[in-house]
Specification:
single chain, alpha/beta, Rossmann fold, five-stranded parallel beta sheet, 10 helices, binds 2'-deoxycytidine-5'-monophosphate
C-alpha cells in the first residue's frame, strides 16, 4: 500500500499532539510532533548558551546532527527526540525557559530549512502522522489528508495547563493565556512559513470536542481518502 501522510497543523495548545498521537495509534501509523524538534533545538541553545537570535549558530547546531528524532510508537512521547546524546522528555521540552523563546528560534529561515529537510526525510521513509505549524503548507504539501486544528484561547489555556501539570511544570492560567497569545502572534506573523491553514486543509474547531471525538472525525476523513485512492 502507498505511504499515507497526515498533516495536522494548528496554533499552540490546540490539541495537535494528543490528537495526532491518538490518530496514529488508531490507524497503526507512526507519529511525529515537529514542535518537539524546535523545542529540542531551543533546549540545546540554552544549554550551549547560543542566543535565540543567532541564526547561523542555531543552524550550525542543526547541521552538526545534534538534533535527531526516531519514530517509535512505544517511546513515552510516541517518538524519540535527542539533543546531542541526551534523549529529552516532556519536562525538558515543555519547560518555561524553552517555551519562552522557542518561537524566536523557530522563526529563522536557516533553522526552518534544516528542520523541514529532516522532516521530509522522515516522511520519505513511510506513512506518518505529522503535527506542527507548516506541515500541510510547506513540509508535506502533497499530503492527502490535511487538518487545521483550532480551539478557543480559553480551551487551549486549559489544555496547556493540564499538559504542563502532567509534565510537572508549574504554570498560572493568567500567564498561560499571555504566553499562548504571544506565541500565536509570533507563529502567525513570521515571514517564513507562518501558521496558516493550507487551502486544501479541513479545519476542525475542537473547543467543544474531546480528543477522542477529534480522532474519530479525522479517522473518518482518512478512511474516505483511502476509499477514493
Ligand atoms: O507545537 P509546539 O508548541 O510544541 O511548538 C513549539 C514552537 O515551535 C511553536 O511556537 C512554533 C514552532 N513550530 C514551528 O514553527 N513549526 C512547526 N512545524 C512546529 C513548531
Amino acid at each position: 500500500m502507498r505511504a499515507l501522510h497526515v498533516a495536522i497543523d494548528g496554533p499552540a495548545a490546540s490539541g495537535k499532539t494528543t490528537v495526532a498521537r491518538g490518530l496514529a495509534a488508531r490507524l497503526h501509523l507512526l507519529y511525529l510532533d515537529t514542535g518537539a524538534m524546535y523545542r529540542a533545538l531551543t533546549f540545546l541553545a540554552l544549554q550551549t548558551r547560543t542566543e535565540a537570535d543567532n541564526a547561523a549558530a542555531l543552524r550550525h547546531l542543526c547541521e552538526a546532527g545534534l538534533i535527531r528524532v526516531e519514530l517509535d510508537a512505544a517511546a513515552p512521547l510516541g517518538f524519540r527526540v535527542f539533543a546531542g546524546d541526551a534523549e529529552l522528555g516532556e519536562a525538558a521540552l515543555q519547560s518555561n525557559e524553552v517555551t519562552a523563546i522557542v518561537s524566536t528560534v523557530a522563526a529563522h529561515p536557516a533553522v526552518r530549512e534544516a528542520m523541514v529537510a529532516a522532516q521530509r526525510a522522515i516522511a520519505a521513509r513511510g506513512s506518518v502522522v505529522m503535527a506542527g505549524r507548516d506541515i500541510g503548507t510547506v513540509v508535506l504539501p502533497d499530503a492527502p489528508v490535511k487538518i487545521f486544528l483550532t480551539a478557543s484561547v480559553d480551551a487551549r489555556v486549559e489544555r496547556r495547563r493540564a499538559q504542563l501539570a502532567r509534565a510537572g511544570v508549574d504554570s498560572s492560567t493568567h500567564l498561560l493565556k499571555e504566553e499562548i497569545e504571544e506565541r500565536d502572534r509570533l507563529d502567525a506573523g513570521r515571514a517564513v512559513a507562518p501558521l496558516l491553514a493550507a487551502p486544501d486543509a479541513r479545519t476542525i474547531d475542537s473547543s467543544e470536542m474531546s480528543a477522542d471525538q477529534v480522532v474519530e472525525t479525522i479517522a473518518a476523513i482518512v478512511e474516505g481518502v483511502r476509499a477514493e485512492a
